Amino acid sequence: MNCPFCGHEDTQVKDSRSTDDGAAIRRRRVCAACTQRFTTIERVQLRELVVTKMDGRRVPFDRDKLARSIRIALRKRPVEEERQERIVNGLVRQLEASGEAEISSARIGELAMDALHSIDGVAYVRFASVYRDFREVEAFSKLLTDMRPGEEAELPLPPVKRGKDKG
Ligand SMILES: [Zn+2]
Predict the structure, then answer these.
(1) Where does residue 51 rank: exposed (0-12), middle (13-18), buried (19+ CB within 10 A)?
(2) Residue 163 needs a FRET pair 20 to 30 A away by CA distance; which of 23, 30, 54, 93 works?
(3) For all residues of the chain together, what is the average pLDDT?
(4) How far is the CA of 35 from the centre of ligand 1 (A)?
């Protein structure tokens, strides 16, 4: 494993341990050249998933990308990092267990929304606002009615219609 900071080939494992759910192993590493520390994560990959995008492109499933979008949705929300990791693990397992070789990006979005919905209303709406078209004000207000008191305060604002988009 090359050092991500200086590219040096000699990095040493200082510590390795399983994540709480046992689904992965984290290794703390240190670079022998620049002494920077970093973490690598090892996890089982059952099979290669292919994602079909809206525009018809087919790309390999990117776990990190899914994890990033979940993390962004949960930013500053009271959901611990370990739990966020478990959400992503759960989603990946669902995808792998589906038996399909190809999964649409829309389907992945739906599964992620379902997972977030049961965990944090604000994160759910944030995620949904990226995946769904929020020009329909009704759709947005319907989501609001599903929320618990106090959660509305942290919502992103619905997209503003630009004047020149008429028609
Ligand atoms: Zn280095």
Answers:
(1) buried
(2) 54
(3) 80
(4) 6
Residue ranges with strand state E in 82-128 = 102-104
Q: Which DSSP state fits 32?
A: T
Residue 135 has pLDDT above 60, yes or no: no
Amino acid making up residue 136? E
Which pLDDT score, from 0 to 100, does residue 10 have? 87
Q: Which residues are registered as beta bridge partners of 102?
A: 50
The candidate with the shortest Cα–Cα distance to 47, out of 67, 35, 63, 25, is: 63
List for the chain the helix, strand, coil content (%; round to 5). 40, 20, 40
Question: Ion ligand 1 — residues with CB under 5 Å?
Answer: 3, 5-6, 8, 31, 33-34
Per-residue pLDDT of 9-21, as tens digits, reads 989 999 999 887 7
CA of 23 to the centre of ligand 1 (A): 28
**What is the number of other CB atoms lying within 10 angstroms of the CB of residue 134?**
17
Percent of the chain with pLDDT over 70: 76
Q: Cα(22) to centroid of ligand 1, in Å? A: 29
**Structure confidence at residue 167 as a pLDDT band (50, 70, 90):** very low
Token pair 């998933």 is found at 49
